[in-house]
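tool_log.txt
---
The assistant was asked to compare two proteins side by side. It first ran the structure predictor on the initial sequence, then on the second. Raw inputs and outputs are pasted verbatim so the downstream comparison step can read them without reformatting.
(1)
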Amino acid sequence: MNKDFFKIDHKISLLDVLEVLDISIDDVVIKKDNFFFDPEKIYIEDFVSFKNLKKNKLSFFTNLKSNFTNVSCGICIAEKENFKYLNKNIIKIPFSHPKKGFSKILKKYVTVNQKHKKENKIHPSAIVHKTAKIGKNVFIGAYSIICEDVIIENNTYISERVTISPNCKIGKECFIGSGVVIECSILNNKVKVAHNSILGKIGFGFIPNSTKTTLIPHVGGLIIGEGTNIGSGCTIDRGLIDDTLIGKYVMIDNQVHIGHNCFINDFCILAGQVGLAGSVTLDKGVILGGDVSIKDNIKIGEGSIVAGASKVFNSFPKDSKIGGSPAQDISSWKRLVASQRLN
């Protein structure tokens, strides 16, 4: 953990970790000849990658291919069947999904290393309109512009050079990175938007004309569900008439574009450089690999997976495995690729 940017909220004991993971102390494996084992007196001082694991540091272990022979102490979350690969001096915490368990601990105890106090802190260079409603413990960074009738709820962090246009609403415990522009948008609680993303801008709808092509006014909005994470450099258009909708706990990587009137259901994952044309629907839990492109008005069924670099021109049903250009059932695509290599 880089302590220049992140900090541990308070002193964490081994018992605290076990409580978060719902693990009994009896399930923890420790060197049998350590007669001085007292879980109340073992503290976590840092969170590290496995290769950097040392005394009073916590990590997780999943990669059997990694070089783990030189790691000889510390506290590690691992699957029980993998304990045999770890040094006998390492304190071992059993958990079925070690990375998920480690993530739960980070979310519980690590925060951004902000030095502002609990009262609102608005940088002197920020411009906040008198009609904007600012909740408690809100930070607004340098040169940010908060326009008329914007609502920013409690415990939200607005970084520097952010622009939030009139009537937008930002929920509780949100994080808005530097350089973000937000228009015609409602962000529910715990939404995170990384640097230089643009939300709710006008979509690419136009009326072609030989003398004067004109953009169509977009009078819909953008609604983003609770817990959604949006990476850096993303662009998400507002709706033409109805709203563009992003569900709950959607994970959107860097440099993703989502066109107007798309509907991204809960728990979808969009890797870097994905591009969705207008009115695309992704049902719950769809996963898109990097550099996937999807044509307008396409629907991808619940739980489907689209391989990286695929170009999708047709809709697919629930639980599809999709790949290729043009995209098709992935088993058919693999057979096609294999046959082409033989020719």
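(2)
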Amino acid sequence: MTDTTERPSSTGNDVVDEVRAWLEENWDPDLTVAQWWERLGLAGWSAPTLPEDAYGRGLSRGDAVLVSNTIAEFGALGAPGGLGLLLAAPTIATHGTREQIDRYVRDIVTGQRAWCQLFSEPGAGSDLAGLQAKALLDGEEYIVNGQKVWTSGGQYADMGMLIARTNSDVPKHQGITYFAIDMHQEGVDVRPLRELTGRALFNEVFMSDARVPADAVIGGLNNGWAVANTTLAHERAGLGSGGGSSSASAAIPGTVGGHLDTRAGDYVRDPKKPSTSGGGAAFRDTSKMMINLAQGAGVANDPTIRQDLVRLYTMSQIGRMSQLRVKAARAKGEEIAGMGNIAKLSMSDMVRLQRDLGLRIVGPQGMLHAYDSEHRKSLDAATGNPFLGFVTEMALFAQAPPIYGGTDQVQKNIIGERVLGLPKEPNQDKVVPFSELPKNA
């Protein structure tokens, strides 16, 4: 297990200068995506918050945002995106063995393998510890059977972060194990789930006698709940307000997306242009775009719209300042309890405001939405508004962020119980064996 304590970096300007100097020497748009990501990842710039002995640089989250913004502003391809970098790498760096860090994290920071998260089930979402997917030891392997749902990026994943039940005769939180599972095997069936937006960002995954080597257990047998909470903490911090960056890569990591052997320079985009690819990254801070959109529509002087534009800008700045508070606290070896949960709740408020504000700005055109790339081009041509699709997709997708990564209600419960010390709701799930608990219908 590696030390994940963040060390205070030198000033932000020093970090920016170091990244720029490294880019001047190393960026080459004619490299393949795989070649460029290998340079970026092994230099520690793909995941700079990771410890130095886990392919990172031990920087704070605030300095990591400076790194990613500097890469984007330089005009280089950003780090490989996805859940591998956001969730799997920091979790394995915290709980994995030296061999597991070298086996899994290296391929994540260099974009060689894409990951998905196999947590939620049809009957175990907010009550995640109620999961029923089972992993039974068979010699040197575990045999896994069960169903997962709302699996982001499952269609591109090479590996999965799997939590499964390995002991039903202990209380439900104590009988869960965390695995790294190969998604390219018989017995793993990924099926896309079409959303309101027309996209299929999420999937359901069926595992029928899938196999996981015993040495792919992360954090120890039956210790999966603690490991999963590390993953969830990184998820909430990454999804929360103030957690974004402008250099999210347009190239898809892993062997399935087909981008690794293509030219890196072809995926570089203007950092000032908002992504319309769907998903949570587009929702973190759109205040500037909303202001420009309102000015272009001639409604920027409407008092209620101006008020909500100010609200949105204020919320984004509070998120940014909260991240600075976290950075300052960690520099002193301290943590601010509940900040990840608060950031997640704030993000939910922001996406709801962005949804309502965007539809008010575009007016009746907000009733029009294109569900595939061909129709998006037609809609842009018909309306003359290239940002309309972004607004309508944001409005349709806005129902998801307050649910995924832990619902707003779950975040409030965590804050109430773990931060404020309020009493928990009475139940017996901490003491009664899982096999004896009533199950969801």
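---
observation on (2): The longest strand covers residues 202-213. The two ends are 39 Å apart (CA to CA).
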